[in-house]
Write a structure and sequence with these properties.
The protein is 0% helix and 47% strand. With 301 residues, it is mainly β. Strands 13, 15, 16, 19, 20, 21 and 23 form a 7-stranded antiparallel sheet that branches. The chain has a 5-stranded antiparallel sheet with strand order 14-11-25-17-22, with no helix packed on it. Strands 1-6-3-4 form a 4-stranded antiparallel sheet, with no helix packed on it.
Length: 301
């Protein structure tokens, strides 16, 4: 029956072919594969019914009844089937992606515990997983951060131990004298050693508190102590002069913070003024050992 209604408009992005009927041929070949419902067919301008008047399978257009003979009386408009647009590699720019549109599920998998950083070229990179209890430490620009042990302070303690209820060594006046140190109480980080009154320290930054218990052997005199780097002939901690009366002990003290770049030797030294000094012993507990010269060090992490 004739087509009723407005003439169909042009179909964009479609293929159009014309065929000439001969009254007997029912099969015609399309230039592209399609399907029955993706094709419009008109014979002498009359729209044909999809699936009733014709079918399409691949490139074959098959009519139920052979179209009548006439030149170019069959007009076919159709869409192809299975046409897929493929985006080229590296073709999606940042501007094409909405903010907050990339979720964790879209990120490439990594190793449990790894962190994302940027390398010296500005490209994303992974920070290797650390161990339990480690902390992340920056290495500055150009190097990735790394996990490592948390920095902590380490402690060293040395002193001179004497017999209970007795005096210690005597130091003559007029110059700095080396204080006897004979006991390592602890060294939590194995940063030092003690040999013949000399403390050898490993490279690092330290805080030192050092003192000795001393009395004047005669009249009032002045005493001071210092912690001396004997490797470099430099003093890293100086104490103030203290007035000391005869047989009345005091504890001249020095303290400071210092850094050494390599292993160095140190001594605790005392300066008796105009009179000789001696390490004063004795106290309420006559059974306890006497503690005279003391050097306490804290190595910073």
């Amino acid at each position: 029956m004739p087509y009723l209604g407005n003439e169909p408009g042009a179909i964009t992005d479609a293929f159009t072919q014309t065929f000439t009927g001969d009254g007997s041929e029912t099969n015609f070949t399309l230039s592209q594969s399609s399907t029955t419902n993706a094709v419009f067919v008109r014979i002498h301008g009359v729209m044909q019914r999809n699936g009733t008047d014709f079918t399409v399978s691949g490139t074959t257009l098959a009519f139920t009844t052979a179209p009548p003979a006439a030149s170019n009386n069959i007009v076919v408009q159709f869409f192809t089937v299975g046409s897929i647009q493929t985006i080229a590699d590296d073709a999606v720019a940042t501007a094409k992606i909405a903010d907050n549109a990339v979720t964790l599920a879209k990120l490439a998998g990594g190793t449990d515990g790894n962190l994302i950083t940027f390398d010296a070229s500005g490209d994303p990179a992974f920070v290797a997983t650390g161990s339990s209890g480690q902390v992340l430490t920056s290495a500055g620009a150009g190097s990735p951060p790394t996990f490592g042990s948390a920095p902590g302070e380490e402690f060293l303690l040395y002193h001179h131990t004497g017999s209970s209820n007795s005096a210690g060594d005597t130091y003559s006046a007029g110059a700095f004298r080396t204080v006897t140190l004979d006991t390592e109480v602890y060294d939590t980080g194995n940063n030092g050693s003690l040999s013949t009154n000399v403390i050898t320290l490993a490279a690092g930054t330290y805080r030192v508190v050092a003192y000795t218990t001393i009395a004047s052997s005669s009249s009032t005199a002045y005493f001071a102590v210092r912690f001396r780097n004997t490797s470099d002939s430099s003093t890293v901690a100086n104490g103030a002069n203290i007035a000391v009366e005869q047989d009345r002990p005091v504890m001249p003290m020095c303290r400071n913070r210092f850094t050494i770049s390599g292993s160095k030797n140190f001594e605790l030294q005392v300066f008796p003024g105009t009179n000789n000094g001696y390490e004063f012993g004795g106290g309420p507990d006559n059974s306890a050992p006497e503690i005279f010269g003391v050097v306490q060090l804290t190595k910073e992490g």
